[in-house]
Amino acid sequence: MTIDDVINRIPNGGTVAIGGSSISRKPMALVRALARSDRRDLTVIVDVGGPDVDLLLGTGRVAEVIYAFVGFEVLGLAPHFRRARQNQSIRFQEWTEYTVMAGLDAKVKRVPFMPTHATLGTDVLKVNPSFKEIRDPFTDEPLVAVPALKPDVALIHVNYADVQGNGVILGDGHVDVLCAKAAKETFLSCERLLSSEELQRFGRDVQILRVYSRGVVEIPWGAHPTGCAPDYRTDLRHLQDYLQAAASEDGWRKYESEFVAIDHVQYLENHGGAEELVSRLKV
Q1: What sign does the CA torsion over 108, 114, 119, 125 have?
Q2: ∠ CA 269-71-126 to the nearest 5 degrees?
Q3: Which of 72, 117, 205, 278 is deepest in the core (most CB within 10 A)?
Q4: How many folded domains does the chain comprise?
Q5: Are 112 and 187 in contact (CB under 8 A)?
């Protein structure tokens, strides 16, 4: 598929689960395409969000965020997320990392909720009315019912994929497998397409199976500016420029023009080309 093919499958008002974690292996080329599209009123589900969520908020695509954390790790807070959270300009559901996993798992298991001990005795139950305290019907033990999360689409970046939709993730898979299984349609972007024979050599690193994938897009540097280990590191310099730009309206409009409202080829050129990125970020 092409990037535009994927974005055309995302409906207005749809629910989008985004893989990766914070500033690691986010499907940023797909996210930028979604940010410059005319899609609106999206619900975004992330376990640990970063520039993916912040960019979509900054470009006005989002009506609700379901999240455990959104930030830029060592670089600080996510500016658009912080402003929207403080102003309550959109809806927010504050979950925890485990409960996001449990909500996705409930959808995979085709049950309306997942019972858990998680969040008992915490203020999460005060800030998130989606969770309900229940009793174990066998022991009368207190539990929390975490509702199923039901993404329409999952966007996931992987190291390698084949045209059948199998995806290799080298290293931590985060919650990507759960996102892929829970979504009605899952789309992969990958650093490089391989033949199915080459891909199978990766064994257990083939974490996304073809039965869960609807399409694949080959996008070298598709996670940039987040990292895609072991292929390249997180581009901390770009993220620092992002944070500085997002601090003012003029700075943000300039950033959008230079790095969002363009295709992926031009995006790489605006960084000096792939050769420049290789020299700075290749592990």
Answers
A1: positive
A2: 150
A3: 72
A4: 2
A5: no
